Queue: 3 jobs
Job 1
Amino acid sequence: MNQLFSPLKIKGVTLRNRIVMAPMCMYSSDNYGFVKPFHKTHYETRAMGGVSLVILEATAVESRGRISANDLGIWSDAHVDGLKEIVDGIHRHGALAGIQLAHAGRKCGVLSEDIIAPSPINFDDEDLSLRIPREMTERDIVDVIYAFEEATRRAKEAGFDVIELHGAHGYLINEFLSPLTNLREDKFSYNEAFGTRFIKDILSSVRQAWPEELPIFFRVSAEDYAEGGNTSYTISDALLTLKDSGIDLINVSSGGVVPARIHTFDGYQTKFAEIIKARTQYPVMAGGRIKTAQMAEEIIRNERAELVFLGRQLLIDPYFALHAAEDLKQEIDYTPVQYSRWKTSR
Ligand SMILES: Cc1cc2nc3c(=O)[nH]c(=O)nc-3n(C[C@H](O)[C@H](O)[C@H](O)COP(=O)(O)O)c2cc1C
């Protein structure tokens, strides 16, 4: 069997193959974070197309944690019903449903909102449209931790199987984890355990609200692509301090902490995942410009990662997993029954 199509059990859930839909903001909500018909069709279609896990886009745990005014939200109980409809649509097709819980921190682009960060440093000095964030007080930190816990409780109510905490791309959690953005001198400082105190406290609250048998993923930026910033090695050191905090898998991405030119190529982030896996022994998910079944299969077969994520390829090919099965000549049994005739046309 191709390893890409082998199931993977993580805690109490089993993914039917190793192909995961990466979280991708669709900027299609209203100004209040509610689910729209577009979201339901969009996510259900990818589940129908055979991925094992659909991870919903960065979903804001506080209204000031939005990247844009059109982000999805999970900061109020009123958001649960819409999210549950998406979850039900994903489950109808045998995929698992995940949600990325996020706070934009200094990258909040909603002008009416308070903009907060570990330290009062702008994302880009040259962009005059960006506001300088307010340095978070300990009270702010407690509030945001509570917001993550409440969001987790709502994710459970909506029926999600996986939560992913967004610690990448220069958003709030990542801002604590990078020496370029965390200049604090208190217990949340970068010098105290690589800035992991904030995420550690989030994890300990979130674990109270999330069933023990369900997994928690953590997405990190393995490289800041800037002098003095994080690399796969420093991020590995940070992750080692979180070993007993309840993370089940690391989703390895990169960039976004400071403006930087990133040279991308097919598979450009796989090496980072491999380094983190080797140094920390966490299971990892690799991705970044994976477009072919062969590349995905190679990563899994060579045990470079436990899972692969696909983002943009799934935007143009929701049926990537079915195409991959065809390319790799793999029999699969989860084609939607209505579509099973595709096999007889070959
Ligand atoms: C339209 C779009 C929206 C994205 N939104 C998110 C997001 O909400 N959260 C996140 O962690 N990454 C986000 N990303 C990054 C993707 O998850 C993924 O890591 C990136 O696109 C690289 O994978 P790919 O080459 O397969 O697309 C987004 C990417 C795209 C293209």
Job 2
Amino acid sequence: MINDSVLDTIGRTPVVRLNRIRVDNGSEILLKLESRNPAGSVKDRTALSMVLEAERDGRLKPGGTIIESSSGNTGKGLALIGAARGYRVILVTDPKAPASMVEYVSAFGAELEIVKEPDETGYQRPRLNRVHELLAATPGAFWPNQYDNPANPKIHAEQTAYEILDDVGQFDALVAAVGTGGHISGLAETLKKKLPDMVTVGVDAKGSRAFGFPYETWLMRGLGIAWKPENLQTELVDRVHLVADHEGIAASRLLARREGLLVGESAGAAVFGALHHAHDNPGSRIVAVAPDDGGNYLGESYDDEWLRAHGLGDAVAALATTELLVAAAKDPAWPSMTLEQVSRLVTSG
Ligand SMILES: Cc1ncc(COP(=O)(O)O)c(C=O)c1O
């Protein structure tokens, strides 16, 4: 098959059964490898969907400029798409942006704007403020605004969900990490219509405010957010599972070492959530999503020295075998709960 452009290679990602990281109760965990998109993540689909929509409705004209706040995968996807379609791309990020990301997007010719002053919740809001300044100063600039752009969940409802149905058919639960809420909301929209009994589990970082929990800091990249994103359709999420840094990171490292799947921290978190769900639901067939490639975390959470420097060495070491990880997922510190239970817990303080 000859693709007319690299953009035609976005999507049609494989699903792989986990053979060792599993609960031995008749359940199975199937991992959808969004890491296999050309810029390495689920965000390639989102970025392309937002750009094509903006081209169609005239917000983005030939030779125009795309400006977005991203220190990760959306930036990588936009940088690739900008190169392939001839747009200038400016990414607003902060000093914590991984060097690998900066080098990656620079290779595609994207420009970086580094915001240096955080506010009380970190860099996310100051970065958005800078995006607005740049938009005002750049005629014809387009802001994809992935947190509140219907084209983000739409591509997953119209494309990714059907790939899962084609490859997997019937299944019992979807487990997906939540950042902007784009992929879980889009997938759930279609899959709940096609498989009415299927349960959706949103995996969030311990400390994230996506579902209203009190804010704390967390380390994992990709999932978690300091506010509730507009794209997150909470009514489509049946259960929420807060995953701690060491749980998600330990799972991602074992996916590499025991399954040969080099995936990111949020994939580890999703698999940890899937293991927890499998313990509670013997015999169930679970689809989890691996949002990005583990290459993003080399020299970081795949590196023992880095883990020690970030105070996670012992906690990750305590989950360093499949047996320990699977056992920890049976009764984690924050078991999954319904949204009703979440709101009761949050209101009772
Ligand atoms: C690595 C990673 N995991 C998870 C997510 C969350 O995906 P979504 O924004 O669709 O909720 C993202 C989004 O940026 C991501 O980059």
Job 3
Amino acid sequence: MALSYSDKVTSQLLAFVNAFFYRPGADPDVVAATTALRNLDPCGDVLSYMSAVQSNIEHASEVKVPILFAGGEKDALYPQPAAVQAQADLFSNAPTETATFPATGHALLQHKTEQQVQERLSQWLDDHGFGPPERTRAPQIPQVHVVDLAPLNGSGVHGKAILIQRGGQLRVIIIARGLEPGQPHAQHIHGLDGDTNAVCPSPDAADQIAGLPQEASDPDRFISLEEGQPSYGPVLLPLTPFPDAAPVGIVTYHETFPVSGDLSDLSDEVVVLHGLTLDGGYAASVPVACGQID
Ligand SMILES: [Cu+2]
């Protein structure tokens, strides 16, 4: 069975309790009855207060983090500014500051100076690198883009890219079929500068080089990587590692990238897959599928 309340009471502690909670001359029977009924507080019972204070004082010099001691000038329990200064002096190895608020009592946040106290505490937190509270930042709602990948250059490649953007992270999932089995397929997010929408190149992009007639400039009739660039722009994000297509010509891909700047808004960009066997062998850079990101 636990010790009763009265078992723990020493005469010294009882004197402290009497002085703290009761007027001089309070009826001893009332004091005894109410003391016995006193609830335990979260730190143990109130009678542990004195020994806790003693222990805290003994360990105060071990504290090394910054501390602000704040008190009210009209505090009837702890006369200020002497009390906050006495506390600060105990923490001899910590960087300490003191603040005393005029026309303020013991409960700092329950007086008309509350705003002043709040501002001083906020300023101290700011000065010590705590910054604005997390809850003032915008919530991070994921943006999801589902992109249809349509064939270029008669490749027969079809697929989907799913782009999930949240905070500074971009998850990319690509599933495509009709690719060259066993070959590596470069894949990128392409885009144009500023607000210009990148688009997938139309078949006549094949003769856009230098404005020459198609037969002269591009006898192969294929849209090369460079010929597609006026439509889709340069590479903004290589979706590495580039996958090899499975023996049946399928690619499945899943990676996460940190993104910022141009890529924080993907809605003007395109996804391009590359790699096709032409007469001269495997042309790794030729675009074979493209999809505009909505
Ligand atoms: Cu590309």
